[in-house]
Amino acid sequence: MQAASMTVPGRVNLIGEHTDYNGGMVLPAALSVALTVNLLPRSDRRISVSARGYSGSAERSLDEPAQGHWSDPSVGALREAVALGLLQDGADIVIRSDIPAGSGLSSSAALIVAILKAARLQAGADIGDLDIALAARRVENDYIGLPCGIMDQVAVAVAQPGQAIALDTATLDYELVELPRSHAMVVLHSGHSRRLSDGRYRLRKEECDAAGQAFATDALCLLDPVAIENAPDINPILRRRARHCSTEHRRVLAARDALAANDLATFGALMNASHASMRDDFEVSIPQIDALVADAVECGALGARLTGGGFGGCIVACVEDTVREQWLERVMELHPKARLIDYVGGEPKG
Ligand code: GLA
User: Is the distance from the beta carbon of residue 248 to the nearest atom of ligand 1 less than 6 Å?
Assistant: First the structure.
């Protein structure tokens, strides 16, 4: 039997953070940094996985529960592949990735989706990309135990590098969105990594569930911002969480329209407002990222924000393409720990 090979991109979320488990919209884009998986089926219920950039290699049984180990996403993905009938048993897996882990660029979703797509290829099955994304989310939610939304899995399963996707996470309806050539959405790593599994993501999910109960809704994003301010007797933390979800959802809709109208000034202002909301209302930023975002704007970006789950990782900044290099130089002078990861939009890479 031949190995199946599959490459899946990382993603940057342009706007719409923590809305994907609160019934709202998101606007991620697929990057050119990517992850490739080689998968060779085997005839026992075991998996061997080796990965450059992780801690070498591991051998696990498909019947083991998650262990908080870097190989958990691979084990969980194979379990799903078996459950979907894409594989009979285990597999040998080799991973090559240039998506930095712990940076808010969906390295975990890319890995799980790549394994599922490689298994689909191997089986010649015709299960669709959205079903692959849903299976990948089950790996995170049910096997690994991370209560994430569906944004990352759909973004990396559906979008091609450089493409943005406006996704309604309640219905999974989406449209591909064209990015401007005049401006680049630059992804910078702050130099501060984070792990979603460290409990703070889960805490935000629990706070949103509590806010949902307080406001009697399962879609905080669809609440009217005025109703949130006027509701009596709401815990101030829960009111702030609800305010972020509701205003962020509206910012995504406005950002999608601004892109369609080629109104990058408005798009940039929405990014800035999104960052302020993540910092003040959702409280998922850190001072080093606030400083990087502020300097990115100070150096000439139309807007900038923390991207991904938060507490570290990357920012994304909207920069006029013709001044991108100079802008980057100035930002890096102020933040020597930061590094360029990728960009989408702008003139095609040569
Ligand atoms: C992580 C999760 C996503 C989403 C973002 C925040 O990337 O995996 O589901 O909630 O954080 O927008």
Answer: no
Residue 92 appears among annotated catalytic residues: no
Coil, helix or strand at residue 201: helix
Single pTM value for the model: 0.97
Q: Which of 25, 141, 146, 152 to mutate to test the pocket of ligand 1 (most atoms within 8 A of CB)?
A: 152
Residues 340 and 200 in one domain: yes
Catalytically annotated residue among 20, 72, 152, 281: 152
**Residues 48 and 58: beta-carbon distance below 8 Å:** yes
Cα 162 to Cα 178: distance, rounded to the nearest angstrom: 9
Q: Which of residues 177, 201, 228 is at a domain's end?
A: 177
CA of 151 to the centre of ligand 1 (A): 7
Protein residue with its CA nearest to atom 10 in ligand 1? 18
Our count of domains for the chain comes to 2
pLDDT tens for the 350 residues of the chain, in order: 789 999 999 999 999 999 999 999 999 999 999 999 999 999 999 999 998 766 689 999 999 999 999 999 999 999 999 999 999 999 999 999 999 888 889 999 999 999 999 999 999 999 999 999 999 999 999 999 999 999 999 999 999 999 999 999 999 999 999 999 999 999 999 999 876 556 899 999 999 999 999 999 999 999 999 999 999 999 999 999 999 999 999 999 999 999 999 999 999 999 999 999 999 999 999 999 999 999 999 999 999 999 999 999 999 999 999 999 999 999 999 999 999 999 999 988 76
Same domain, 231 and 146: no
Q: Are residues 224 and 118 in the same domain?
A: no
Q: What is the widest separation between alpha-carbon atoms in the chain?
A: 65
Ligand 1 center to 105 CA (angstroms): 10
CA dihedral 151, 149, 103, 117 (to 10 degrees): -60
Instruction: Supply the DSSP symbol for 298.
Output: H
Q: Which domain holds residue 227?
A: 183-345
Q: How far is the CA of 286 from the centre of ligand 1 (A)?
A: 17
Query: At 343, which helix (H) or strand (E)?
Result: strand 339-345
